[in-house]
Each structure stands twice: as C-alpha cells, then as structure tokens.
Amino acid sequence: MNDVLIARALHVLAVVIWIGGVSMATTVVLPAVRRGQLGEDWLRAFQAIEHRFVWQARSAIILVGLTGFYMCWRLDLWSRFRTAGFWWMHAMLGVWFLFAMMLFVAEPLIAHRYFRGWATLHRAAAFAWVSRIHWLLLILSALTIVGAVAGSRGWPIL
Length: 158
Ligand code: HEM
Fold this sequence. Notes:
Radius of gyration: 18 Å
Number of helices: 4
Distance between the termini: 25 Å
Oligomer: single chain
Bound molecules: protoporphyrin IX containing FE
C-alpha cells in the first residue's frame, strides 16, 4: 500500500501548487493588475506572471491526473463514479478536465489569438472577464478540495 500513500501525497502536493497558484492569481495578481499597480500595460504585467506559472500548472495537472487515476485503478474505485454520494469524485474529475481543456487547448489556441486584441481594445472588460473566470474556477476547486478531504474520510453529509 506504500505506492498508494506515495500517489496520494504527490496528488495533494500537486493540487496545492496548482490551486494555490490559481488563488494567488485570482486574489492578488489580477486585482493589482486591474488597479494599475503593476504598470500601465496590464496585458504585459499579467502575462509576465502567468507565463511563468502556466508551466507549473500544466505539470501539476498531469501529476494530479496520473496519481488520481493510479489510485482509482489500484484501489478499484471506478464504481464510485456511478454513485451520487461520491459527488466529490465527479467534482475532482470535472475540475481536472476543465483546467486541462483551458490550459492545454483554450489557452494556446484561443487566448493567444483573440485575447491580446480584445485586451488592447477593451482592457477593463477583458480583464473583468478573466477575473470572473478565475473566481469561478477557484470556488469550484475549493469546494472540490473540501469535498475530497472530508468525503475520503467518510464524512456522512459528503
Ligand atoms: C483526474 C482527476 C482526478 C482523479 C482521478 C482523482 C482521484 C482521487 C482519488 C482516487 C483520491 C483518493 C480518494 C480516497 O482515498 O477515498 C483522491 C483524493 C484527493 N483528491 Fe483527487 N483526483 C483527481 C483530481 C483532483 C483535483 C482536480 C483536486 C483538487 C481540486 C483533487 C483533490 C483531492 C484531494 C484534496 C484529495 C484528498 C486527499 C486526502 O485528504 O487524503 N483531486 N483523488
């Protein structure tokens, strides 16, 4: 069972790095950018930070997926995905899929192509939208973390 313990530890470590970064971007970086505290060029300021973090987030997503599926396979937890009471298992998969799509598909394909133009023409609106998306993802992730920690220890209402 040591392999499952290691997988679980790596799973949580990667979640901390990934969602911690999302929290920092949402609650610290974006408000500072939108107040002009990191300079007048909002896009440049945001991208300077985001470009460095995005690779950490991508690596963490891969590690979370590998360790998560490994635990499902080793402990044969697949039947949980057919039970509503294990909503937090669905939530983990859902949040993971959403971020994977955003960081591996939408960000390189759409964001780079369209966001630069939008942010140049309508800076405030574009950054308000980025901020809303970040808040939504952060809230979903936080609920998932609470559900997973409590649910995996058998908390009855979760
Ligand atoms: C492919 C996606 C994922 C899979 C297959 C997966 C799978 C798992 C499994 C099998 C467990 C152990 C459950 C148990 O011991 O009963 C677990 C624990 C956990 N997962 Fe995930 N997970 C995934 C993504 C995520 C995401 C995106 C988050 C955070 C937003 C997350 C956060 C956690 C947490 C906090 C725990 C509890 C650790 C503990 O307290 O022991 N997982 N995950």
